Amino acid sequence: MTRMDPATSATSASSALRLLAGLPEGARVSVRYALPADDASGLPLTDALGELAGVDARTVTVRTRRGDVVIAAADVRAARAVPPAPPRRPRRG
């Protein structure tokens, strides 16, 4: 079992929001959040991995490879700061 560093991870909604609010914009984060009950995936939760683009009282924005993900603060379940992504490998061919 891996121990999570409390300075860089949070597993309750309120502590996750406090953690995110204390990080600088551009920090690489992973945010777990609730999906609407009628979401086509049928899953209750999903994650957004990318750079923190903004945090306010109502939303958290994570800039992912696919674009910005705007998450309602009430839907955030957990968050953590993550290390920088490894360098991408060049394509073969």
Summary of the model, kept short:
About 10% of the residues lie in helices and about 40% in strands. By secondary structure, it is mainly beta.
User: Regarding CATH, which class?
Assistant: Mainly Beta
Please give the share of residues in helix.
Answer: 10-25%
General form: globular
Which stretches of 5+ consecutive residues score pLDDT under 50? Answer: none
Quaternary structure classification: single chain
Number of helices: 1
**What is the percentage of strand-forming residues?**
35-45%
The biggest sheet amounts to: 6 strands, antiparallel
When the domains are counted, the total is: 1
Give the N-terminus to C-terminus distance in angstroms: 40 Å
Q: Indicate the CATH architecture.
A: Roll
Polypeptide structure, described:
Helices cover 11% and strands 41% of the residues. With 93 residues, the protein is mainly beta. The protein has a single domain (9-79), classed as SH3 type barrels, CATH 2.30.30. It has a six-stranded antiparallel beta sheet with strand order 1-6-2-3-4-5, with helices on one face.
